[in-house]
Amino acid sequence: MRIALLLALILMLPCQKEAKSICYLKDRFFIQQAMDIQLNPQDYSDKIINIEGLFEKYVDENKIERYIVYRKTAGCCGDDGSVGFEFLYKKGKLDIKPGEWILVEGHVLEKADKEGNNLIYLDAISVTKKKKGTEFVK
Q: How many domains in the chain?
């Protein structure tokens, strides 16, 4: 009798939507995961991306401040490569210095540039300073 009552109560509850899944870019597969997101952004459109790395910023030709989260890796001339994402942050100015370690949580965003090329960004939900992690990834 108790089981039947419990089942009846469960069936009467409204269905809850599944929470968005979170994709953590881990040290060991950082490059592979970052490349997969860049090449297959549609596969990540319903996920929240969590990426930790070094912070960098620059001012583009339109005088807009742009932000990047990245890790260092091997490049063409030794250890001079980098992998990461540019991210948009719409909640004000970031009080973070270049080279500080951050965690960016955000959604994958595709935008076309002037030439029609698709560019992949993260639309940041939050950006927080963290204790420095593994700077160099393979």
A: 1
